[in-house]
Amino acid sequence: MVIEEYKLVVVGDGGVGKSALTLRLIQNHFVEEYDPTIEDSYRKQVVIEGNTCLLDILDTAGQEEYSAMRDQYMRGGDGFLLVFAVNDTNSFQSIAAFRDQIMRCKDSDDVPMVMVCNKVDLPTKTVSLREIQSASQAYGIPFIQTSAKAGSNVEKAFHTLVLEVAKRRRAAGIKKKPKKRCCIQ
């Protein structure tokens, strides 16, 4: 059995729910208290469209004081979740800078990315759906509305990113780090 590995990087401003999304996917658990992340790494094996995939997920620091670390993890990532909170206009505006930095670090304008609008369960929304759709279209990347708290569309966000990476790999004719595993039945 061949297992494809995907290095996914979760980026966005502090407090937008990057860790909450990641932990919801990995442990199906929502963390109420906010504890700023410096950098955490998680691995999870999933099946997406019949293919077994190993997700290597890097949950990054959103705080500006850790911005020096960004170039390094951006160079190593296969795909990126650009996360913002629907109740935080500044975090939405920061997505452009994250996107630009990723493209600069990867030296490419065709990097697999998915824009994630998190915290859609909250009653106060300062970023409109029209703004999100407009940015998604301008950047040429899909967007997904999620709630880490409710667990809605979290898996879909990560799986969509894996499919974006797989599509680019097929187009380039590359298979990244297949792992052969023995299966005894």
Automatic annotation (TrEMBL):
Q: Gene3D superfamilies annotated for this entry?
A: P-loop containing nucleotide triphosphate hydrolases
Organism in which the protein naturally occurs: Strongyloides venezuelensis
Q: In what way does this protein cross or attach to the membrane?
A: Lipid-anchor
Q: Which keywords has UniProt assigned to this entry?
A: Cell membrane, GTP-binding, Lipoprotein, Membrane, Methylation, Nucleotide-binding, Prenylation
Q: Record's GO cellular component, any one? A: plasma membrane
Q: What is the protein name given in its UniProt record?
A: Ras protein let-60 (inferred by orthology to a C. elegans protein)
What's one Pfam family the UniProt record gives for this protein? Ras
Kindly give the NCBIfam families that the UniProt entry links to this protein.
small_GTP (TIGR00231)
Task: Report if keyword Membrane is assigned.
Answer: yes
Q: Which Gene Ontology molecular-function terms are recorded? A: GTP binding; GTPase activity
BP term (GO), one: signal transduction
